[in-house]
Automatic annotation (TrEMBL):
SMART domains: HTH_LUXR. This is LuxR-family transcriptional regulator. Residues 282-339 form the HTH luxR-type domain. GO terms for molecular function: DNA binding. It comes from the Bacteria. GO terms for biological process: regulation of DNA-templated transcription.
Amino acid sequence: MFEQPLWHGFLEKLRARTGAAYAGLAFRPIDEERIVELHAGPAGPLHPDRLFNEKQGRDPLPYRRMREARVYTLDELIEPKDAALQSYRREWLDPLRITAFRSVRVAEASGMDAWLSCAGGREVGPAVGALLTALVPHLRIALRSFVAFEREKFRSSVTSEAFGRLNSGWLTLDARCRIVDMTAHLEPLFQRSSVLRRGRYDRLMPSSPAVDRELTALVKRFAEDAEARPKAINLSRDPMIDMLVRPIQDRSPSVQSPPVAIAYISGDRWSQADRCGQLVDLFGLLPSEARLAWAIAQGMSIGEAADDLGLTVETARNYSKKIYAKTGARGQAELVRNILTSVLALA
């Protein structure tokens, strides 16, 4: 189930074992009408969902009424008295020399149905049916694992997308500060910003020598003490990029270079000037007000922000009153929350 194409090796072995011209596995994803069809051997309209007159524009779905774990023959699936299906058989199956067919339906508890089939000539007989019957419990387990894997993959993709939208990610480091694993969203951050890069031998390299020394010492400490305290490090003010480094307590002894630390990185993809422009658009602030609002959101006091922006404290206070009115904030703490949790975070 981890192969590409899915189950290809299994189907090839099944075809070789049975001598069938065709071995197929089809399944219907949960809550979907479409059928996913996998096969080994010549491609053709051999599976039950194609045996029921799709060319006539109707789908009577008798294959869904197949009893679970019971093997069906071609004559049972294509009823002799059904003229349309018999025509389909003569038009599509006979030219492919499909005279015998065995198919079994397997149902997984979550709601996924699958059909395992072998088709060909006289060699596809009762022995093939017995083999399919024996495979049913194993295929059911494989389907259960496949469903669990697909659900986790979906959750992972949603989580990964959220991290990407928030411009956040994580990476793990071994005792030598070499990257063991990381989220895909960090690679663009490496390319977009110079504060971090992947160095020789995959070593994580901060651009600041002071931060590099601090990170190296921190990871060395985590390698020796898995209970050491996490540490937050600011990597850049404009754009704002922060990193939280903490030890990994659950370490696998089977890995040659096990990760000893995990670093969560949150980086703004926009500059301060860009963010001020977005505040103008979002809240209707004047550019001067937006610059003050962004400074306050970065943790500055009114006095610090006024000094940084070249304003008098009185002017900054007058601006702040207008900022509170336009953003709906009732104080500095609420202003910070409104700005940092607004749609700017997802921009």
